[in-house]
Amino acid sequence: MKFKFFFSVLILSFSLLLIGCMPAPGKPAPLPSEQLPAEPLIGGQRDEHGCLGPAGYSWNETVQACVREWELDEGQQKAAGIAVKHVGPEYATTIIGVDVARCPGCFSVRLEKGEERIPYTVTLNNWEVADIPEPQDNFGCKEAGGNWLSEYNECEYGSREWCEEAGGTYSECESACRHDPDAEICTLQCVMVCQF
What we know:
Largest sheet: 4 strands, antiparallel
Strand content: 25-35%
Number of helices: 3
Structural class: alpha+beta
Strand order of the largest sheet: 3-4-5-6
Distance between the termini: 92 Å
Radius of gyration: 29 Å
Order of helices and strands: HEEHEEEEEEHEE
Number of strands: 10
């Protein structure tokens, strides 16, 4: 008796499984994977403005740049528009982030220009540009194999030849703690630095 009951439940379960795998009436059965149409891989496609749609960026006419609409409120969009106008709109200009400061109309706008993705930061105070933005690596430090420190306007570990060609002042042995005079522990190592 138990065997018949178990066997009946097994057949009923198997039947339901088969019915569930059948396509719904009026819908075609799925194609085997080798017959599926080839779709392009997403990731690097840009639209006519240079926006990376697969990454969530779309063109914003007011800002004149590629933005992620859901990341910016009305004030941040206004700040981004001011920053883009200041550095000059260009193909593939993308707003990376807009940080709100504590005063009215105060923002820090991070953006990248062009397909080269040159980074800029524009600071606004009371809806006006507070600084003259320059590319954060406007001397080619990274391309020369160095580490750009924008807050100090210097490049670590670039060569002497590159530094002199770029118009900087080369120092062969700077302290690793030169920007932290209150450091309690500092390694004794020389850091090659090109200052601008």
